[in-house]
Amino acid sequence: MTLRILTAGALFIDAGVHIHLAPGYQAGNSAGIGQGNLFLLESAAAVLAGLFVLLRGSRAAYAVAFVVSLSAFIAVVVYRYVDIPAFGPFPAMYDPVWFFEKTVSAVAEAAGAVLAAVGFARAGRRTPRRPARSSA
């Protein structure tokens, strides 16, 4: 249960930071989605993955948590170091600085990915319990 709480906690921290930052990042591609809306979508995914892990703790729940955490971590690192231009409805999100909230989010995402991977591996080692046989 501790692993489930820690994994969900990392996802909830990530979601909280993205919700907090979303209004300041909304300006952008007027014809597209906007970075603030992408932050809100990522927050929703993180909250749902966190709840899934808390409620189920299954391999599927940890897999979802892993994908959400790792994809968010990769995005923050890539957009920190690589200036990817706007494409389709997605705005250019290059942000070449580290600041407190961004760092907290990246650490939570990395921790969430590692914890989810551990949870996935541990959930796979569980053996199904056999029903008790009667001695009649």
Describe this structure in words.
The protein has helices spanning 2-21, 35-55, 59-81, 100-124. It is mainly α.
List key phrases describing it.
single chain, 136 residues, mainly alpha, 65% helix
Measured on Cα atoms, how large is the radius of gyration? 18 Å
Instruction: Write down the overall geometry.
Output: elongated
Q: From N to C, what is the helix and strand string?
A: HHHH
Q: How would a crystallographer describe the biggest sheet?
A: none
Number of strands: 0
Mean pLDDT: 86
The helix/strand class is: mainly alpha
Distance between the termini: 37 Å
Task: Please state roughly what percent of the residues sit in beta strands, choosing from under 5%, 5-15%, 15-25%, 25-35%, 35-45% or over 45%.
Answer: under 5%
- Uncertain runs with pLDDT below 50, 5 residues or more? none
Quickly count the helices.
4
What proportion of the residues is helical, as a percent range? 55-70%
Topology, please?
Layout: H1 2-21, H2 35-55, H3 59-81, H4 100-124
Brief rundown of the structure:
The protein is mostly helical and 136 residues long.
